[in-house]
Design brief:
The complex is a heterodimer. Chain A is of the alpha/beta class. Chain A has helices at residues 18-27, 49-58, 78-96, 113-130, 135-138; strands at residues 9-14, 36-41, 62-67, 103-107. In chain A, helix 1 links the parallel strand 1 (9-14) and strand 2. In chain B, helix 2 crosses helix 3. The longest helix of chain B is centred in the first third of the chain and has 19 residues, at 109-127. The chains are: A alpha/beta, B alpha/beta. At the A-B interface, helix 1, strand 2, helix 2 and helix 3 of A face helix 4, helix 5, helix 17 and helix 18 of B.
Chain lengths: 143, 652
């Protein structure tokens, strides 16, 4: 039997909302695919596009960035800075030939354990059908 | 120098070990680069677990420690302390969360173990680049802001003030006292609410350490733990609080009567009024919306009769800023709006009333002088009490409001005590969980009250037979008998549930705290930190966190006070040293970071053309780090090197 492809996802989770929300999903014993390995950051605004590219170039099949809902940022406006940065990042990824589904920006509050689990579930499903990223083959950076 | 890393894998009883092969994980970790020792143990957070780490640090001269266990939100401080007490800088430790986001989310042991290996590998590789950090200590302002003057806020304010610390107590309404001031009796002891509350209200007013700001609200809250600034708006009362003695002449002479909100508009008050006679402060307020001077420019009777020249129509809204070191939110709840359930007819059928209206009817100083009367002035011959109105209902609020079962029993008791009426009580489940509650339930059962187990489907005035004529018919399925009952009564009391206040979202925003799914304020931990929040120095107490009865509210008010005092008394507080700093050599002076910092912590030095960060203002969000095109900014404990290593290790 062919084994199912299990995508590897790096999750940048802000410590106040998304990380706490992800903790809550576990605390509530919600079952969802264990495909995300979390990297805890203070704020989604800390996520430098370099970190995302590093993950993809090192072998991740997808990257999830999750922060507080707009207006709820613990640092006032870090998440809105991520929104602007994310748009540029998406353009860059498109030019690299990386499918836009591979990098997601989501809002998860500290009380949304269920929402976090369903985001991870749908992202994992999506990446399963997209298959491995295989950065070295796919991404040809023009000299 | 090569690091010597100790890795400690926790079983957490079976919480982790059930789905993660902890032995295999420790074996795997022992082969990772620079790992000197890797052990697994039942409970790493226990005393023997911590001792194991401390001994290894001392005996094996470990330079770095990784603990793979629960979420860092749970035990990071525990292990940092353990590492620190063995002589290693606490920041040379990294925590790998293999429970909340790994062992608890899947039944698949292979996948969970594989993921745990990724997580531990990432932590081990990253910890190589952890640096010893010094925690910043900041002085704590000992003044405390308490928002909300209900029984919870009153308790917290008095406890803190009694310890000699200054309290600013802010209340939106013209008087403190909150909902409790409107209640007649309190369950299960049936002591009179006013008798136990009003002395406390007076203590607040007279306390030398409490500055009471009524008819006021907090509009902004800035700064950081230990050094906050609260901006408070004082709405004009049009009565000078200094001059007024509370003689009540103005109220007596005011020619205009309007419905009194305090009495749920069942009674009347004047345009210049105190919500109730024992109001604190005992100073009236002019209702600008109705006052004849403000609406028509005439009257001024109150000015004429005030013996102290305290009336001041020129008063304006005032803003005051107070420096505080911490804050307690005790803002309470809103009652469910019963008119939302159309089939219950509230607002349409005059003798369908809510429980708070019942409280005012039965209150000795209420609009009927404590007599339970129908709208036509007659005493009811039968009364139905409906539980769970707006609670335990997917259409409105899923949560149980906790207090309604008991106050409904109290309603039944009071109706039986004061009238000859028959009482029918419709409940779903009877929740009598507190001290003396079950006993109270038993007592009411013996007071000739008919209990019917079933959610009420409809309250109608359409009679189907002569016995129902002129009555309110309560329709419910009696789930114990398995039949539909139609019970004709004269009065229906809807036991409305407790909801988050309408301004909860706004307040959460001002104080930068979160709310749970039901809309109430979110505590730091449901069991171990029930009054703390994710915001350091900001606490919640009472029903703003979830519905609570009076004993629990008072307990939480006291708990929040103790939490505040424990760090106020130390005089200083330690801040996470995850702040950012700019390398002068690498900074190109582009100023991108200056505009991005939400705290104004970054300044630009024109003399050398470089930006610099004021460390006490930096909160450690890292936005500037991510934005710096020169890579000149680093955030402590989240350096680029640390994060890039962690990411690479996850993906390898």
């Amino acid at each position: 039997m062919e084994t199912r492809f299990e995508p590897k996802i790096v999750g940048f989770l802000c410590r106040w909302c998304a990380y706490t929300g992800a903790d809550l999903a576990g605390l509530s014993r919600i079952n969802y695919p264990p495909n995300v390995t979390p990297v805890r950051v203070n704020c989604s605004g800390r996520v430098d596009p370099t970190l995302v590219l590093k993950a993809l170039a090192s072998g991740a099949d997808g990257v999830l960035i999750a922060g507080c809902h707009p207006g709820d940022c613990h640092y006032i406006s870090g998440n809105s800075k991520m929104v602007r940065r994310f748009k540029l990042l998406q353009r860059l990824l498109e030019q690299f030939g990386v499918e836009k589904e591979r990098v997601r920006l989501e809002w998860v509050s500290a009380s949304e354990g269920g929402r976090y689990a369903s985001i991870v579930e749908s992202m994992t499903e999506e990446l399963r059908s997209l298959g491995p990223l295989d950065w070295k083959q796919k991404v040809v950076i023009p000299a | 120098m090569t690091e010597k890393i100790g890795v400690y894998i926790c079983h957490c009883g079976m919480n982790i070990a059930r789905t993660v092969d902890c032995k295999a994980l420790a074996e795997y970790a022992s082969h990772l680069p620079n790992v000197t020792v890797a052990r697994d143990y039942q409970f790493m957070c226990s005393n023997p677990g911590q001792e194991m780490i401390k001994n290894d640090i001392r005996e094996m001269k470990l330079t770095r420690v990784v603990v793979a266990s629960c979420s860092p939100l749970m035990h990071e401080p525990t292990f940092r302390r353990a590492v620190g007490s063995a002589g290693l800088n606490p920041f040379l430790f990294h925590m790998a969360n293999i429970r909340e986001q790994c062992s608890w989310i899947t039944e698949n042991r292979d996948l969970a173990t594989a993921r745990a290996k990724d997580i531990v590998r990432a932590a081990v590789m990253r910890v190589n680049f952890n640096e010893p950090l010094e925690v910043q200590k900041v002085p704590v302002n000992s003044s405390v802001l308490v928002v909300g003057g209900g029984i919870t806020g009153i308790e917290a304010a008095l406890q803190i003030a009694d310890s000699g610390k200054k309290v600013y107590l802010v209340e939106k309404e013209p008087t403190i006292g909150g909902y409790m001031a409107r209640f007649d009796k309190t369950f299960p002891t049936l002591d009179c609410a006013a008798c136990i509350l009003t002395p406390k209200m007076v203590s607040v007013e007279q306390h030398e350490n409490i500055e009471l700001l009524t008819y006021s609200d907090v509009t902004a809250f800035s700064g950081y733990v230990g050094k906050f600034t609260a901006k408070i708006r004082k709405r004009p009362r049009y009565v000078d609080e200094e001059k007024c003695t509370g003689c009540g002449q103005c109220e007596e002479k005011c020619p205009l009567s309007v419905p009194n909100e305090f009495d749920c508009k069942l009674g009347k008050r004047k345009a210049i009024y105190r919500p109730f006679p024992q109001a604190v402060p005992n100073v009236p307020v002019i209702d600008r919306e109705h006052c004849l001077y403000f609406t028509k420019g005439i009257c001024k009777v109150c000015v004429m009769f005030c013996p102290h020249q305290a009336i001041d129509f020129e008063q304006k809204e005032k803003y005051v800023e107070v420096p505080v070191g911490s804050a307690i939110l005790a803002t309470g709840f809103d009652l469910f709006d019963a008119s939302r359930i159309k089939e219950y007819g509230y607002g349409r059928l005059p003798n369908v009333i809510t429980s708070i209206e019942f409280e005012r009817l039965t209150h000795a100083s209420g609009p009927t002088g404590g007599r339970i009367l129908l709208k036509n002035g007659k005493a009811p011959e039968s009364v139905a009490i409906v539980h769970c109105v707006g609670s335990r209902d997917q259409n409105y609020n899923e949560h149980c409001s906790r207090v309604c079962c008991m106050y409904s029993l109290k309603t039944a008791h009071l109706v039986r005590e004061k009238t000859e009426a028959k009482v029918y009580e419709f409940y779903i489940d009877m929740r009598a969980f507190g001290k003396g509650y079950e006993e109270f339930y038993k007592r009411v059962l013996h007071e000739d009250v008919t209990l019917i187990r079933g959610r009420v489907a409809e309250i109608s005035e359409v009679a189907q037979n002569p016995s129902e004529k002129g009555k309110l018919i309560v329709v419910a399925e009696d789930t114990l008998l398995g039949i539909v009952r139609r019970v004709p009564v004269d009065m229906v009391v809807l036991s409305v549930g407790l909801e988050p206040r309408k301004d909860a979202a706004e307040l959460a925003n001002i104080f930068r705290i979160s709310r749970s799914k039901d809309g109430f304020f979110l505590e730091k931990h449901p069991k171990l930190a029930p009054v703390a929040t994710a915001g350091q120095g900001i606490y919640v107490a009472g029903s703003c966190q979830s519905p609570k009865d009076i004993p629990d509210s008072v307990a939480q008010g006291g708990a929040a006070a103790a939490n505040v005092l424990s760090f106020v008394d130390r005089g200083e507080i330690e801040l996470e040293p995850t702040i950012a700093s700019i390398s002068e050599e690498a900074c190109s002076g582009c100023k991108i970071c200056v505009g991005l910092c939400p705290y104004g912590a970054i300044s630009f030095d024109e003399s050398n053309g470089r930006a610099a960060i004021t460390s006490v203002l930096c909160k450690g969000c890292g936005v500037c780090v991510a934005a710096c095109p020169s890579g000149a900014i680093e955030q402590q404990n989240f350096t680029n090197k640390q994060l890039l290593t962690e990411i690479e290790a996850i993906c390898s």
